[in-house]
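FAQ: What does a ligand-bound record look like?

Like this one, built around PBG:
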Amino acid sequence: MVDNITFRRHRRLRTSEAMRALVRETSLSADDFIYPLFIVEGENVKNEVTSMPGVFQISLDYLETEIEELHQVGIRAVMLFGVPNEKDEVGTGAYIDEGIVQQATKKIKAIHPEMLVIADTCLCEYTSHGHCGVIHDENIDNDESLKLLAETAVSQAKAGADIIAPSNMMDGFVIAIRQALDAAGFTTIPIMSYAVKYASSFYGPFRDAADSTPQFGDRKTYQMDPANRREALKEAATDVEEGADMLIVKPALAYLDIVREVKNATNIPIVAYNVSGEYAMVKAAAGNGWIDEKSLVMEMFTSMKRAGADLILTYYAKDVATWLKNN
Ligand code: PBG
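The answer part, i.e. the structure of the complex:
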């Protein structure tokens, strides 16, 4: 035996599942998860997204079944993305009363009033150029875009959205939306800000699902450089000052250091967005039988919570809730 240092037996606390459960530091619950939905116009549409097996674009008439299924497994919050038929230069479909997200919100609140509807507030699914703001001379005009984003948030709140989640990365979007919501009487509607959003290749499959690939250039003049950590703290601090109620860090898996940094630097709930590319990678490996999908997915989400995430936005939400329920 070694005699010049104290011998420690860490394995004592790993001897049985009950013992491990007793000392486990992190756990998952269905309440931690938010499920994204892609809503398309038309009727009787249920298109599987090629790069995201198990994820569908659905039309309004499928909401009833979908919301019922989510309710059954204990998912209590959905994030809505709209995929409109008509797009234009200024993303009109995002802020009209009969926009696809507005219609879906009304429908969900009618089916299950207690289901929380989180509206993604962005223009990219509604603009013909696919950028998250309006364009002047091939530049995304920050302050002009804010007006339309504020209008979008108000119209989503009018339709019944419980939480507004701006994802556009324009400067000042939280304060602009807060002021517009307050002025319209929606002082109690919280803002879940995509505060820390990187210009990431992990969004590829989402852009198929939401039909929102930029038609020219990229999003690097508004989304963050993946190389930057300090900048994440700057973005987070600004959004907290502007009145954000929750912060999203996105993507999640390759950015767990950022989740932890933002968690330590703030005192509001942190949401990790397990994005489309992360989902697609796991699905592809699982489809080939190369990994054990369920245990790998649970490990991934446990790691996100361990890193500091209070909530997780993921296309796996329904599966996870089902697994937790059948445990
Ligand atoms: C809209 C938006 C995007 C995602 C969420 N909201 C796409 C983007 O910024 O290009 C990505 C989500 C995912 O990849 O799962 N701006």
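Follow-up question: can I read anything off the structure? Yes, for example: Residues 26-326 form a domain with the TIM Barrel fold (CATH 3.20.20.70).
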